[in-house]
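Assemble and predict.
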Amino acid sequence: MCGIIAVIDRAGCPMDGTKIRSALSMMDERGSGEGAGYAVYGAFPEFADYYAIHVFFDAVHESKAAVDRELGNWGTVVHEEEVPTYENRNIRKVHTPWRYFFKPDPSLMPRSETPEDDIVMHLVMKINTTIPGALVYASGKNVAIFKASGWPEDVADFYRIQDYSGYIWLAHNRYPTNTPGWWGGAHPFNLLGWSVVHNGEITSYGTNRRFIESYGYRCTMYTDTEVVAYLFDLLVRRHGLSPEMAVKALAPPFWDDIDRMDKKERTLYTAIRLAYGSAMMNGPFAIVVAQRDGIVGFTDRIKLRPLVCGTAGSRLYISSEEAAIRTMEPGLEEVFMPRAGEPVIGRLGK
Amino acid sequence: MTRVTIDAAGMHYTPLNRRIREAIGAGADEIVITGVMGQRFIADGVRGRGTIIIHGIPGGDLGMFMSGPTCIVYGNCDHAPGNTMDSGTIIIHGSAGDAVAHSMRGGRVFVRDNIGYRGGIHMKQYQDKCPVLVIGGEFRSFLGEYMAGGLILALGDPGKNSGRERGIGSGIHGGRIIIRGGPLDDRCLGVGATQRPLSGEGYRQIQPIIREFADVFSLDPDPLLRDRYTEIVPSSSRPFANKYTWE
């Protein structure tokens, strides 16, 4: 059991972190105080064109030089700083969060169609597997991730998320079940533009991990949700699937439903299931994925976790509980529960 | 008549439930709770009489193990209102989430609008205890999953409550699911479930429930009473006799 809430302002209007802190705290019962986190898109307008590489250091003086060297090999750091944090009696600062604003040199990845993204992805995997005491936990443009071991309100206060604004927010309150809670295992998980919050468990993690690692991704966070961020990066950015189709690959229709489709659809969904059999996710889940221009929420095919949506003007909310949405937005125009396996999509400008 | 009013805005469910129990213990006839926003476990394990009126959006497991009172909710409910409820009534002027009436063993849950997945999962009955779940709108897949007893009555528009759902009565081994309208496509039924037109006697049994539901929500009962119904029941007296043991 975990709690999730996400919001997009489809008109692109910024929202600060005050309300989402209240909404996530309302769902404290869904967590255990061992992990909470927030993602915000549009957080760094002054560095919007640079990759915001977030790193947890165990000890800055031991590991940072190696990270600096690695980044220097592949591009330029235009600005860097320790992520500001504020003393909180309920959070033990076991890592030092740091952020670099980074410009990769595309000429160093000459055969790639998306050289900058590929360089950053390579750097994330390289640092996380070879530099002890350093963990890259976010690497998108104009995206900030705030996470730690603690309760939602404490993590929010620790980073003072009310000081940040953006047009998409994701938030997650963790109840770790299969692996211990730690800072790197708190959600949201991020790679490049992708951020993921997830309630449930992915029992197909072993299969999914083998699949995704065969494409160069490396799982280093000791928890299942990590693969979802990498799967979206692979399916949408690298393979060119639409977000809708990516959801249909990860939570596909049942074979008996496919049998009843007309020929064109049947051919498509059969191909998707065959091509992405090892990407299919089993187990109970409710997930929201964000990227630069939108969010998508979906559940497993037999609906073993809750997901409810609400709209108010240009804003679309997706959450585990309606009350969390109403805590942020008392004047909802519409409330609905999406069907199992059906994506709910909020796009910027639509 | 004694009435107690509680403003629950910003209140945790533990002190809220303490206030409810105190009021019931003191013999209150009506407890009005305003400003409810996501508090779980409201009226759980409460025994006695009286009416609890809830304005807002209660959290999960409303009325769990409740025995006796009536809860009237003006708003939508989260998951599992009526979870393992013993007796009493829950009336929801709105919709509810997944697993409504989960393991319910007595009393009634009336939902005016829609419910989520797994409504009435593992409802049961024993001697004079026979729980009833009535849904005015749509339901989702796995209605009456593992059902062992009791009655689920789905009164929603037959055009909307057919076709897309799967696993209705999956694992059912007791009780009845009665759905307004003609027979469902057999593929909507779960393992161990079978359907047949509702008998005249069955129809006579649901008539008073329909009238009461319509009365509670100020609906016209006539279209509901005029329509035909389909009953979904276990396919035999022990559909899973050979599932775990071999005789």
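Residues 209 and 227 of chain A are 6 Å apart (CA to CA).
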